[in-house]
Amino acid sequence: MRLTLPQTPRRSAGLLALGALSLGVASTASAQGPLPPPLAPNENPITAEKAVLGKALFWDEQLSSDGTMACGTCHMPGHGGTDPRIGNLAAHPGPDGVPGTADDIFGSPGVSSSNSFGHFESDSMFGFGVQATNRSTPSMIAAAYFPTLFWDGRASGQFRDPLTGQVVIQNRGALESQSLQPLMSDVEMAFESRDWTSVTDRLAAGRPLALASNLPADVQAALAVDSTYPELFENAFGTTEITPVRIAFALATYQRTLIPDQSKFDRVMRNQAQFTQAENRGRGAFGSPQSRCAQCHSGSLFSDGQFHNLGLRPIAEDEGRRAVTGSNQDRGRFKTPSLRNVTLRERFFHTGAPGINSLNQLLQFYDQDGGPFADNKDQRLNDLRVPPQVRGDIIAFLGTLTDPRVAAETAPFDRPTLWSERTAPNPMPLGLGAVAGSFGIVPEIIATSPPAEGNEGFRVGINLAYGGAWALLNVRVQNLPPGAPTDQLRSGLPFPQRLEGAGPGSGFATWIDPAATAPVMVGMSYNAQWVVRDPGAANGIARSEMVRITIE
Known about the structure:
CATH superfamily of the domain at 264-403: Cytochrome c-like domain
Distance between the termini: 29 Å
Structural class: alpha+beta
Number of helices: 15
Mean pLDDT: 91
Radius of gyration: 25 Å
Low-confidence stretches: 1-30, 487-492
CATH architecture of the domain at 264-403: Orthogonal Bundle
CATH class of the domain at 264-403: Mainly Alpha
Helix content: 10-25%
CATH topology of the domain at 264-403: Cytochrome Bc1 Complex, Chain D, domain 2
Largest sheet: 6 strands, antiparallel
């Protein structure tokens, strides 16, 4: 299958325009211009075939060990390329491990702690619940323009094959370097000790985007011709082989097609529109000697790409760039994000900044010389003023940096609907049947994995039960698929098992059975409930809440 991408300026034109992106802290608003296309590394040129493969991979929850997380789960275009799930509730309790304190972090929810076999394990901070990242999710839109990625810049432009350690891309490969790390993170997307064979085998055997719906038109067109990942890889790379390097190349190529260059600001720079009076005043205030926003948010990217300590939190909580460079000069420094599409974001800074819930509060933070922690704080914050009378105009100017296609999630920023976004979840908690055990503790059922055909990560767990007791995942079938053999269905039902742990509230277990999502099971719907022997429960039996599971 042959696909086409919109034409972009030649590399020489891109290099000239890209100069506006790299003027550094000396840049002012006068250096700004329309956003040029990003430069791809010579080793990974952009092709339509790689881009559409990368788009499928980026939005495929099957890329996680349990089928609950896609790359895009944390990077929604309509929210400026960040995580809309964070909202106003800090997901990570911070270094002190105590929720509701000053060091809380608006990190992204990931996967529950699990060993290499997929069995749930208790995490010291999150227990059996979903873990969260210890930094807020940065935007992936315009990530293609940065020479290093992550808040601390640890993903460099040199990309190495994770299997051999050989250098595959010498320069401009930060996207490739970054793209593979979440797939191996046992907080973000992976079971403990995940290896690349499990990733590539899963892609080879699975149906692309099997957990998603409402697929974008370009992805639908590609899958109409090449319906498997091996076929998509063959179309993009010439052979069906699936490797970590090829996964990284495809993911990076897709992100290099996400060019947010249709904002009002870009149109004004192309003489296709005009700023309003408020927007024009805001642009002036943005670059003024008083507010000095443009000293760090410079050029067409509205970022100097450098690292700064804003005094937001104590360095002891997170040393930032110093963990990468080892230099004391970098202690507490984090990368300057692009301000493009900033009006779509709910959270700001690497912590998500509790207490800063709006652009007005963000500007107030800078009006106060940044944060209160002085150690290695950037001196450019001294005497910086963003008084109330200019904030509305600056916010109006920042609104011109929003690409309407990003806000509306239209091509090339269109995306599928993820399994996790369903209004009617599956598994579905029913709120019925719970019976407390010893000391009034109710066993908790853990049912988050999609019960989709072939999902090898599907499992159902229990915790807060009586440790060491016998337990059974009781299954009550609601309907049988047409023609399903009863004996084969019985083979997929669970059997009693002894819980790990010892005593009241400490028991836990995981039920995993590959037959549970076999093709013959598709269409089957059942209620599942853990039943636990517990001497402190009524009639000696404690029960979890019921959940409805439908194999799709």
